[in-house]
Each structure stands twice: as C-alpha cells, then as structure tokens.
Here is the input.
Amino acid sequence: MTKTKVQDKTKIRIEKGKQDIQFAEVMDECHKEFELEPGAHFTYITFDCTMDRVTQNSIKAHLKQNAKLEIYNIVTSKASSSIMQDIYLDEEGAEVEVMNLLLLTQEASLDSKIEIFHLSKNTTSSLSNYAIAKDQASIALNNNATIKTACSQSIARQSTKGLTLSKLAKIKALPNLYIDEYDVIANHACSIGSINKEDLFYLMSRGMTQEEASKIIVMGYVQPILDHIHDQDLKHRIEKEFSLYLLGEK
Amino acid sequence: MSKLQIIDLHVSVEGKEILKGVNLEMHTGEFHVIMGPNGTGKSTLVSTLMGHYKYEVTQGQILLDGEDVLQMSVDERSRKGLFLAMQYPSEIEGVTNSDFIKAALHARSEQGQKFSLMKYIKNFERATKELKMREDLPHRYVNVGFSGGEKKRNEILQMKMLQPKFALLDEIDSGLDVDALRIVGENVNAMKSEHFGALVITHYERLLDYLTIDKVHILMQGKIVTTGGLELISKIDTEGYDWVKDEFGLEDEEIETRTGGIIGTCAVKNALGEKHD
Here is the structure.
C-alpha cells in the first residue's frame, strides 16, 4: 500500500485489485476525478484548514465491480467553503463510505452536496456527517442517494450528527433518498442540537471549567471519525486544529 | 480539618419548594447518613451542594471552611473539595476514562505544578484493582456501555483519584449486587480520615454495614426532622417512617395530581384492532 500527498493531479486511476491511500490539503479549488478498477480499494483523506480563503473540494468518482472507495473530508475553517462530490457505483459489488468531519467558526459557511448513484445491483453506500458550528457559522448538508431500478439488494445509509455551540450557529441537513427499486435497504438519521447540559454538569462537577468541559465533550464527539485515521501525525494535527478552533485561539 | 455548613437552606425546582430550611454541619473525618422516604429532597440537597443548574436556592447559606459555596461555579466547588457521586452518571462518548480523570486532575493542579504520569498510572491501576474493575477501564469511554454497578464503581474510582474533602454519595448502593456493595462500602470507608468526610444518601441498611457512621439524619418534607446515631437506622429498618410523622407531628403532604391528555391512544387502538360498532 502506498501513501502519497496529492497536489496537482486531477485524475487518479486505481488499477485492478490495487490499494492506495492519498491525502490532500484543500487549498483554494481542488477538483479530482477517480476511477476505481474492479477490486480496487482507495482511501482519500482531505483536510481543509485554511484560515481565510474560500475553498472548494470537488470529486467525481466511478467505481467498477467490487471496488471500494473511502473518503474522509475534514474541515476546520473560519472562511467559506464547499464540498461537491458525485460518486457513481457503476458495477455490482461497488462500495463507498464518505465521512465528513466539519468544524466551522466565526462567520464561516459551508455547503456540502454529496450525491451517490447506485447504478448496479448489490452496491453499498454509507454517508456520515459530524458537523460542529460555533459563533455565527452555518453549515448546510445536502445528502442525496439514488438507487435506480434493477439495482436490487443495494444498501444506502445516511447519518448526520450536528452540534451547535452558540445560539447563532446554524446547521441544516437535507437527507434525501431517491429509491426506484423495492428489494433494497435505505435509511437516514439526523440529530442536531447543543451540548447536553447534564454532561456539562458532570464534567464540571469534576473540576473542569465550562470551556474545558465543552472542549472535551466535542473532542469526544469527533473521536469516532478520528479513529478511522491511522496516520498518527495527521491525526494529531487534526486534533490540534480542532482544539485551537474550539478554544477560539484560531 | 475542614467544615461544611448548611444553614437554613431553602431550594426550589421549577417554582416548587423542595427544601424548606435544612440545617446540617459536618467535618472531615465524619460520615453522615441522610435517610428519608422517596421525594423528600435528599438528592435535591446534594445536587444543590454541587451547584446543579436545575435547583434554585431561595434562602440560606452553604459554607465550606467559611467560604460561601453559593457564590462558586460548579467547577470551583469541585476544586475546593466537594465531590458528588451521582445516582445517574452521564455517559461521555469518545472520552476515555483515563483522559477524563487526567483532565480532572489537571484542572485541580496548581499553576506550575508538575504532573507525574507514572504516579498517575500507578494510582489509577491501584484504584481499579481495589474496586475490582476491568483492566481495560482506562481505555473505555466514560460510562458508555457500563452496567449500573460499573457506573457506580466508576464514580468511586473518580473519588479515589480526585481525593475530595467531602464526598456526597447519592444512592451509590442502588444497582449494586451484594459483592459490589461490599467492595464499594469498604473502599469508601478506607478513605475516612481527617482529610475526608462523606454525606451518604441511602435507603438500605446494608451499605451502612461497611461504613463507620457518625451521625444519621432523617429528612422529611424538606427538613431534617431528627438526628441521631445508628439506632435510628435500625428503627427505620423495622418500623419505617410512620413513627417519625407521629413523633414530630408531621402531616401527610398533599400529592399533586396532574391532568393531561394521553398520547398514542389511537395508535394503540388501531394496533389492537379495536372494533367500531
């Protein structure tokens, strides 16, 4: 398995049966096209931690038979950004897992539109959003999964967890499932709210200030996504960025 | 030696007065028990001492070594030496027990004070062993997937690690099996010293078999109506609380009845296939 840092390549093809992990720092506009040959397994991690520039993270991916694509989009920003990703599960057995971990502060806004098309039978998709909005930040999450006719035994799952850390912060989720076939599994779940007051009290009753307690709760909230990232340096960098943004030091 | 004083404490929840003038004084080195029927304000008292947001103090004082506790935030109260072992501890997803307790210890360490990781690990391992908890405890998320008994033991583990002056144990025995009850009781009792005291809320005599109790208070209708020694516990165990009412002239309180709609009747009726003639 190789690991490379993507900078200027726009088209990536993963050969039959091969595995690859790539990491990209999203700067300004980032457009990628992926083609996964049969049996290929590709993990793509993006990290957008730009302070003040508008960024766009755009992907178009086609997956062939039994290919697997994992995408982790991680954003810590106080500027505007967008995620536009279209994934086509072209052949039987293709599978995609997308996880978004988003932390927006100040007056930042983020638009995420992820479209997954099940175009063959026995295809699987899973889309999870972990979104945190602080100050006056706003996040819009538009998730679409389409299962076409004759794509039986396909599975489409969507879940969104949103955490607002101030009264003015906004998170909006639009989870859509367009299903044209009967013999499928399709579900979506969404919960958006603020930090549980009872949890906050529990941590403060052990001596942590409200700010520290909130930070610990939020870091705990993002941990399930960080557990998927095995590159320890990158993981520590993300944790550090989150910590700085949460404490308002960035 | 430290002193905790509760003076004429009145507490309301959503406009309803629960505590109606509680007076209590205790020192470190002492274990006090509060007993009383359900709904008399025992948990309200300890939650108020810790500063829970739901409870509004309308009158009275709480002093810790002469300092006004009511002016302190929840975290300040903890750092000053109060600890509440909760009846229903929160589950904190994604935060390991080890990180949680480390953060709590950091919070109470003085500026510039060095934190010894080795000492911390040793103390954690010892406390885990003494409470007969699972070895993977440091790596488990706080109370997530814990059984009721494990949660209670985890509260005691935190107490052992944080070394407060006064522990407020809110029904720490509920949900514990016989062996776990003994382990918890013995661990709490072992902490009794001139630097540590406990205010214990319980309904059962069994926990008290393992604790060296100094005073027993009976809380009824929002007030401590009598204080005594272990003889009070035996009397309650055999006779219940009716004699307290008779002896202290307490009248039965009116039970508030609520009126409201029933949700889901239609759904239930339809599911049962109710016939409409």
